[in-house]
Specification:
A hairpin with a 4-residue loop joins β18 and β19. α2 runs antiparallel to α3. With 183 residues, the chain is α/β, with parallel strands linked by helices. It is built from four helices and 19 strands. The strands form four sheets. It has a seven-stranded mixed β-sheet, with no helix packed on it. The longest helix is centred in the N-terminal third of the chain and has 17 residues. 22% of the residues lie in helices and 25% in strands.
Length: 183
C-alpha cells in the first residue's frame, strides 16, 4: 500500500513521503494562483478549482483566500458557497453537499494525529473523512473535526467546534457544539 493509499484510507502514514510532498507542492502552487485571482477572473478561477479539487459542482463558489492540504480529496456539490479564509485539511475525503453555505474562516479537518506520543514521535499521521450534507449552513469560524458527519439541512452556529455527528435538520452551537432546542 502506498503512503497516499494509507493516508486516504485513514491509516497511519508518513507525511514525509516524496510523492505526498509533491502532491502538497502541487496544491500550494494551485492555491497561490487561485488566491490572487479576482471575481472578474471567473473562467480562470473555475479552471484552477477544477484542477485542484476532486470535484466541483456547477455554481460552486469559493472566495479567496482558500487553503487545502492536497485538494484532490475535496468534493464540493452544486451551488456550494465557501466564504473568505476557509481551511480544508483534506488528507481524507471531505464531501460538501449541494446548496451548503460555509461562513468565513471556517476550518474543516479530515487530518488528525495519533494520541500516542511514541507514534507521533515516529512522524506518523492519520485522519478520518468528513461528510457535510445538502443545504447545511455553517456559521463563520466554525471548526469541524475529523470523522464528523453533518446531516442534510443542519445549522452550525458561528464559532462552534463540532466534535460529534450532527443529525439532519439539527441546530448546534458552542464549544463543543451541542444541540439548540427549536423555538
Amino acid at each position: 500500500m502506498t503512503e497516499r493509499e494509507k493516508m486516504t484510507s485513514g491509516a497511519l502514514y508518513d507525511p514525509g513521503d516524496p510523492d505526498l510532498a509533491a502532491d502538497r507542492a502541487r496544491a500550494q502552487r494551485l492555491m497561490a494562483r487561485y488566491n490572487v485571482t479576482t471575481l472578474d477572473d471567473a473562467a480562470e478561477r473555475r479552471a484552477i478549482l477544477n484542477e485542484l479539487l476532486g470535484s466541483l459542482g456547477p455554481r460552486g463558489a469559493i472566495r479567496t483566500p482558500f487553503f487545502v492540504d492536497y485538494g484532490y480529496n475535496i468534493h464540493v456539490g452544486e451551488g456550494v458557497f465557501l466564504n473568505y479564509g476557509c481551511v480544508l485539511l483534506d488528507i481524507c475525503r471531505i464531501e460538501i453537499g449541494d446548496g451548503t453555505q460555509i461562513g468565513p474562516g471556517t476550518q474543516i479537518y479530515a487530518a488528525d494525529h495519533p494520541r500516542d506520543a511514541a507514534i507521533r514521535a515516529r512522524g506518523l499521521e492519520n485522519g478520518k473523512p468528513v461528510r457535510i450534507g445538502r443545504d447545511v449552513w455553517i456559521g463563520g469560524h466554525a471548526i469541524i473535526l475529523p470523522g464528523v458527519t453533518i446531516g442534510d439541512g443542519a445549522n452550525i452556529g458561528a464559532g462552534s467546534v463540532v466534535t460529534r455527528d450532527v443529525a439532519a435538520g439539527a441546530t448546534v452551537a458552542g464549544n463543543p457544539a451541542r444541540p439548540i432546542p427549536a423555538r
